[in-house]
Amino acid sequence: MEARIEKIKQQLQSQDYKLTPQREATVRVLLENEEDHLSAEDVFMLVKEIAPEIGLATVYRTLELLSELHVVEKLNFGDGVARYDLRTDSSKHHHHHLICVQCGSMEEIMEDWLIPLEERLEQEYGFHVIDHRLDFQGICRRCRESRESDE
Amino acid sequence: MEARIEKIKQQLQSQDYKLTPQREATVRVLLENEEDHLSAEDVFMLVKEIAPEIGLATVYRTLELLSELHVVEKLNFGDGVARYDLRTDSSKHHHHHLICVQCGSMEEIMEDWLIPLEERLEQEYGFHVIDHRLDFQGICRRCRESRESDE
DNA sequence: GTGTGTGCAAAACGTTTGCACTGGA
DNA sequence: TCCAGTGCAAACGTTTTGCACACAC
């Protein structure tokens, strides 16, 4: 935990940004909730517990900054709020999401299934892939087991 | 064109909705700009040229309605606005997007590369896929040919 | 002191809603 | 006379911005 904060501190400093107490509190919240996809509001409420004097704008500014530095990834699941994920150190953070349209749950698949596709894109389309997003909308196992369909 | 409007009219009527002049104007704009991914505001401005008295709320309501009827698909590319695409009659409209982070252009790939993955999801994860979204961010061919990299 | 970073409040943004009105069955 | 559909304006929730202040170097 401390080591990871230290690392992020260095990432900031390498671009002449400081790890202020507010930024550190924000990062800690992200670290403590790595499993979730927190919205800015979520982060704000959690940060308030650690550092009650922080302002919402600061949280937004911090998340934006961390996003630019590729410390977090800004996600958009089409529900009207941006969500923020810490980028895992390892690999290129290419995972996929299963979004249940019934219960709203979200599951992650950590495998990257798209590498062959990306190679095809480079060759057939001349498109150099930096990142991708693959989300599936559907019905999760739990919901399937307790309903008859309507879509 | 007229045939396609007629078809949409029937889709509406089958659910007891009417193809009002405003709705028709909206549909015409969508048909005439099938290649683009128009935002509600885009649609509004284009509809105004045909039917200047229309209100933005009506456009939103129409797009929402068409979306519910699966006449259009509501897309989200994470740029803060919803975009709307006519669903092509054929197939399940499973295509993918190449979004250039340099020039903002967007190209569509009409092939569906994910069918094998969806089968895996059903079997390994018990997740029933209704729809998916696959977007690649990167540098398009045109931009690549006229720059040195920085990302 | 000069700077970056901050809190607050106000603004901006896309979108939705309330409401009175209209126009066709 | 209904009642779905509409235009307008106001409300909404998220995000951004302006500005004066704080605090580190």
Q: How many structural domains can be distinguished in the coordinates of chain A?
A: 2
Number of strands of chain A: 6
Biggest β-sheet: strands ordered side by side in the sheet of chain A: 1-3-2
Q: Level of helix content of chain A?
A: 40-55%
Uncertain runs of chain A are 147-151
Order of helices and strands of chain A: HHEHHEEEEHEH
| Pair of chains with the largest interface and how many residues each contributes | A-B, 34 and 33 residues
Average pLDDT, all residues of chain A: 82
Distinct helical segment count of chain A: 6
Rounded to the nearest angstrom, the radius of gyration of chain A is: 18 Å
Q: Report the sheet with the most strands of chain A, covering strand number, pairing sense and barrel closure.
A: 3 strands, antiparallel
Structural class of chain A: alpha+beta
CATH class group of the largest domain in chain A: Mainly Alpha
Strand content of chain A: 15-25%
* Spatial shape of chain A: globular
Give me the CATH fold name of the largest domain in chain A. Answer: Arc Repressor Mutant, subunit A
Describe the structure.
The structure is a homodimer of 151-residue chains. Chain A is built from six helices and six strands, in the order ααβααββββαβα. Chain A has helices at residues 2-13, 21-32, 40-50, 56-68, 115-125, 141-144; strands at residues 38-39, 72-76, 82-86, 96-100, 106-109, 128-139. In chain A, β4 (96-100) and β5 form a beta hairpin. In chain A, α2 (21-32) crosses α3 and α3 crosses α4. The interface between A and B is medium-sized, with 34 and 33 residues. β6 (128-139) of chain A pairs antiparallel with β6 of chain B, so a sheet runs across the interface. Chain A binds a DNA duplex (25 and 25 nucleotides) through α4. Chains A, B: Its cofactor is Mn(2+); Fe(2+); Zn(2+). Chains A, B: It comes from Thermobacillus composti (strain DSM 18247 / JCM 13945 / KWC4). Chains A, B: Belongs to the Fur family.
